[in-house]
């Protein structure tokens, strides 16, 4: 009865007594709480000031929720631009804040799912509008399989090299005319490819 979703008794932050968790709060401050002692509000205390969320936010289950104009893990950073300007700077062309792919911090989008090395993110752009994962044939964040190796990925869209076509440049162009023009030439009067008399290869 005292095990959390990871099957750990009282989240290793308390003891089970009569089927209920009694959280370890040695100083009597009730900073560790929750049904399974899963919330540790000590995570919200700023080391410099000793205040919960630096006095500029509320702590809920170990996470600071900052007041308007403040940000940071412990609400320690102040933003000096107006809230409407913050929203305007983070709004993408499709009208969504950071294209629903990032977090707006003080008028700047911090995009989710960045490369662990910090060199290059799969999601990038001023408003996180570019998603390079759209350019990969089979998504693997560590592969260089952009545009099937036959094109350049530009803001989530493949620009194919000469001789290649398709959303991910996966189809070779063996004919110098477009697929539509080729179909028109082969349909004839019957409007069926090759007048319905084609032989499958």
Keywords:
201 residues, mainly beta, two-stranded antiparallel sheet, two-stranded antiparallel ribbon, 2 helices, 16 strands, elongated
Could you walk me through the main structural features you see in this protein, from its secondary elements to its overall organization?
Keywords: Disulfide bond, EGF-like domain, Glycoprotein, Integrin, Repeat, Signal. One of its GO terms (cellular component) is cell surface. It contains 2 helices and 16 strands. It is mainly beta. The longest helix is centred in the last third of the chain and has 9 residues, at 179-187. The strands form 8 sheets. The chain has a two-stranded antiparallel sheet. It has a two-stranded antiparallel sheet with strand order 3-4. It has helices at 83-90, 179-187; strands at residues 14-17, 20-23, 32-33, 39-40, 57-60, 63-66, 70-71, 77-78, 102-105, 108-111, 123-124, 130-131, 151-154, 157-160, 164-165, 171-172. The mean pLDDT is 81. It is elongated and about 85 Å long.
